[in-house]
TrEMBL record:
Keyword Nucleotidyltransferase annotated: no
GO molecular function: methyltransferase activity
Keyword terms, alphabetized: Methyltransferase, Transferase
A Pfam family: Methyltransf_23
Residue stretches making up the C-methyltransferase domain: 276-377
Protein name: Class I SAM-dependent methyltransferase
Keyword Metal-binding in annotation: no
Gene Ontology BP, a term: methylation
Amino acid sequence: MKHTACPNCGKKDLEEFFTIPNAPTQSLVTIKNREEALAIPRKDIVLTFCNSCGFIFNGEFDTSIDYYTQGYEDQQGFSPTFVKFITEVTNRVIDRYDIRNKQVIEIGCGKGDFIRLLSKLGNNRGVGIDPAYVPGRGEEVEGVRFIKEFYSDKHGDLQADLITCRHTMEHIHDTKGFMETVKSSIKEADPVLFFEVPSIVRILDIQAFWDIFYEHCTYFSPGSLARLFRQTGFEVLDMYLEYDKQYLFIEAKAADGISEKVHPLEESIEELKAKTKHFVEQINIQLGEWRERLSGFKAEGKKVVVWGGGSKSVGFLTQFADLDVIEHVCDINPHMQGNFIPGIGKQYVGPDFLEEYKPDVVIVMNSVYMNEIQKDLAGRGLHPQMLGL
Ligand SMILES: [Zn+2]
């Protein structure tokens, strides 16, 4: 399945710049046995750059696979570090746009953690829409309801003062069509859009190969995201990077006509293209260093575990599966424990397991959590060598 036109701007001046061959097509699906986990189909991720708008996407993304209705685990709220961060971000947006006693919509609400928080902190009423929603995961919040469906034109009657969409657009191939659906849903109300995606800039700058995986078909930079918003009839109010520059936030409103306001965070198409070149030059060095490090651990007979399941661990382990160094992947999300990792075939364990396993090395999939994890391990009498991505 080759996409010959840019999903953001429709132009055809595209350039492939990096391929991850044979990546498992799913990383967060819940699988209960090893054989099934290893049988997950594999396909190439072909990072493609649009010379017309600077958008980066998987040019061979298979849009025919059912990614989100077969059990999908993506909750982050089990980490105190994350809860503190998301509470601060939410309070800020509530204050900025006075989102109190208002109506809010969340597109791609997952298990509903964020819309519950937004509603509680601002005394708002809300609707969360997501095909991967699971009832009963989280407290009941008055005035908050859920629709277990993909967002589409049929939800256009829902009106809101704030439309939020966090960590969802990177899973959407038809980005322009999606933004046009959001735009056409806006009628009498004049909502603020509050969207969040991973930033490709950091991935390119530090060669964060573990952040490239199949379910992410779309990789935004501040420039490409803002250009898409303007092109589909929105005006960018603000943009910023958070969480060690991993997450890119955008605040926007429907514009009269095409907005020409450019935000200072936006990079040019040429600047982003230069970053893709740098990434390609550096990535093999980075992969080689990890390979050498892991082979060294194996030679020394060290017990190595990965802390942090989900897509990052699949993205990381896919590169080194042949070395067979890493025995276990630990995650604090109790809904992941016992599941088998797609494409890798290992079973997730909880932190309790590490007490008896006593790892020599722990590789942390997101350094933002380094202190939290080190403290947890120390509390269990464990003091392994810690490495962070
Ligand atoms: Zn484009």
